[in-house]
Amino acid sequence: MVSDSVAGMSTAFADDWPVAADRQGRLFVISGPSGVGKGTVVRRVLELDSTLYYSVSAKTRAPRPGEVNGREYWFVSEEQFDGMIDRGELLEYASMFGHRSGTPARPVELQRIQGIDVLLEIDVQGARQIRERVPDAVLIFLEPPSQEELIRRLKARGTEHGADLERRLQRVDAEMAEAERFDHRVVNDEVDRAALEVMAILERYGHTA
Ligand code: 5GP
Description:
- The protein is α/β, with parallel strands linked by helices.
- The chain has a single domain (24-204), classed as P-loop containing nucleotide triphosphate hydrolases (Rossmann fold, 3-Layer(aba) Sandwich).
- Helix content is 43%, strand content 19%.
- The chain is built from eight helices and nine strands.
- It has a five-stranded parallel sheet. Strands 4-3-6-5 form a four-stranded mixed sheet.
- Guanosine-5'-monophosphate (5GP) binds at residues 34, 38, 57, 61, 92-94, 96, 101-103, 121-123, 125-126.
């Protein structure tokens, strides 16, 4: 049940807050326009690097076929999401295409305190909030080889249709314009190459796979 999972999410770390490590873990953020392939590149990075902690977001939409609660996302109701906001449990959150997504703050903090580097995959609105709240976070913008290619990928992936697809297409310009706020830009021309470039950036900040 969703409510049980939410309870599990918020209490899973309650009992044993750890002793701080010498080096605090860094927060790395991968963001970019809808349809650029953030999820695919992040999955590849996580396959290559098991030392990174991937932050599982809370989401108010229904799971898609194959998605597992607690793995891709914590699927919560709008009311549960409101509760998380009210209690200050989210490090950032944003509305997108008829639902909301947010990063639970406590698991991120728990990992960082132990010296473990954390990876977020969030939209550009969330990345802005992280820039303000976590000044030493490293922000990576994943961009398409061209805007035309992004539009082609959005149409081809077939997960959105009609009005939803139209809304995403309309946001392409605004999302692409966010690139200049980021510390690094990586072109997602080829998944393996882009994943290796992301890993090279992480290493520059002292991350070791
Ligand atoms: P989808 O619903 O297609 O899985 O994801 C849609 C968008 O939600 C993607 O652009 C993804 O980066 C974004 N997203 C996923 N989790 C979060 C989150 O915790 N915060 C924010 N701001 N965006 C998120």
